[in-house]
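Exam prep: given the inputs below (a chain plus uracil), describe the expected output before reading on.
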Amino acid sequence: MRLNKFLSGAGIASRRKCDEIIADGQVYVNGKVVTELGTVINEKKDKVVYQGVEVKLPTSFVYIKLNKPKGYACTASDEKGRKTIYDLIKCEERLFSVGRLDYDTEGLIILTNDGDFANKVMHPKYDIEKEYQVTVEGEILESELAVMRKGVVVDGEKMPPARVKFLEKTNGGTKLSVVIHEGQNRQVRRMFEAIGRSIKLLKRVRIGGVKLGGLSRGEYRDLTEAELNLLVRG
Ligand code: URA
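Solution:
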């Protein structure tokens, strides 16, 4: 098996990113640094080490959906010592999240040990929608929503159009539904900042056909077969 496929299958990163990690001299095979792209390994016999830890392909797959509460980081170990989503999940397998949510964002996050699946779900080719509920302070004008539907300019870069819809008035605020395809860092917050609005509450409620559903904050469960199919086959 090619080394980049092995690393991405184990959930290290996408194949392309794994090539960068290899070229950068961060991967050891049987005790020796390997920088050659296209290196082939015997996945049953060779010992591959990245960041001081032996990399192994999972033998059985786990797919979980979690309702991430606000105040949890989506990293395995947070440099600021904050709580992470791994504090919420009891699982023997080494899981990683499919994409991330900000520390202050709540809602649906998918975790797995299946690197190929995670890479597929995140790959732009599959163009998977993400739906958020956004609560902003006060009322919002139809003209502001129109700007977002056309594509807001954030830091000189035009964002792709978002599907934005009014949901309801809340106590002193307005709740909207925002659907985007791509997942740039802090994208939804940056879109609202660009029109001079700060977000009071940001919650992801859907990834492709998988909904947050009735999970309460901090609760998680296995994805069903039907949900898995919805994600990888649309
Ligand atoms: N957009 C954001 O701004 N934050 C998230 O956590 C997800 C999408």
